[in-house]
Specification:
- This protein is α/β, with parallel strands linked by helices.
- The protein is 40% helix and 20% strand.
- It has seven helices and seven strands; from the N terminus they run αααββαβββαβααβ.
- The strands form two sheets. A five-stranded mixed β-sheet has the order 3-4-5-6-7. Strands 1-2 form a two-stranded antiparallel ribbon.
- Helix 5 links the parallel strand 5 and strand 6.
- Helix 2 packs antiparallel against helix 4.
- 32% of the residues are buried.
Length: 200
């Protein structure tokens, strides 16, 4: 099944977006969230809930032909991506001013987003939405991915978007690979995103 068969806004996010284009695409995405008609039925039957959440494809927000579990996971990550991109376009990282941002929505392979700067440089990034209990593990995995593809990062910079609830956990987390990168003048910027920000 193609990505466009699962993500109804595929065509809106399939190319690098300028700030204006991003604002329009974000609005369409938020409309899908706000106008979502799916809701979980009230039931105390565990097996019934498992079958509903992990087996039956539904249409939820901007996704279709996915289980509830898959769709909500993707939406959670997408909302971090959208908020992170909004912050980037508004100058949250002064060293990296975007000309365009390519958001790889819909669980594509590769990096989660790619920033082309006003200086015609390319900066790659990852995004995640995670519980406190998994925050350190996810950050380690994300840094591992950045390190693995260090040769791609010509600007000696990378970006990570993550949900703001885990900010204190992440700020206290020390990673030896990241410390080694810092010694090599390689910076990983971290943006803590309010994924509940559905403001227009």
């Amino acid at each position: 099944m193609k990505a466009s068969d699962k993500f109804i806004l595929y065509d809106k996010f399939n190319t690098p977006l300028t700030k204006q284009e991003f604002s329009k695409a974000r609005l369409l995405y938020l409309n899908c969230i706000v106008n979502n008609e799916f809701s979980l039925p009230a039931s105390s039957a565990i097996i019934e809930q498992i079958q509903l959440v992990k087996r039956q494809p539904k249409e939820i927000g901007p996704y279709k032909n996915l289980t509830v579990f898959e769709a909500l996971n993707r939406i959670a990550s997408d909302l971090v991506l959208l908020e992170g991109a909004r912050l980037m376009f508004n100058g949250k990282i002064p060293e990296i001013i975007p000309n365009t941002i390519k958001l790889n929505m819909g669980n594509k392979s590769g990096f989660d987003f790619i920033v082309n700067t006003t200086r015609n440089k390319t900066v790659y990034g990852e995004a995640f939405n995670v519980a406190h209990s998994f925050a350190k593990v996810k950050m380690r995995q994300t840094i591992d991915k950045i390190v693995k593809y260090t040769s791609l990062h010509k600007t000696n910079q990378a970006i990570i978007f993550c949900n703001k609830e885990v900010k204190q956990t992440i700020l206290k987390y020390k990673n030896k690979k990241e410390e080694k990168l810092l010694q090599q003048q390689f910076v990983i910027h971290k943006l803590f995103c309010d994924y509940e920000n559905l403001s227009y």
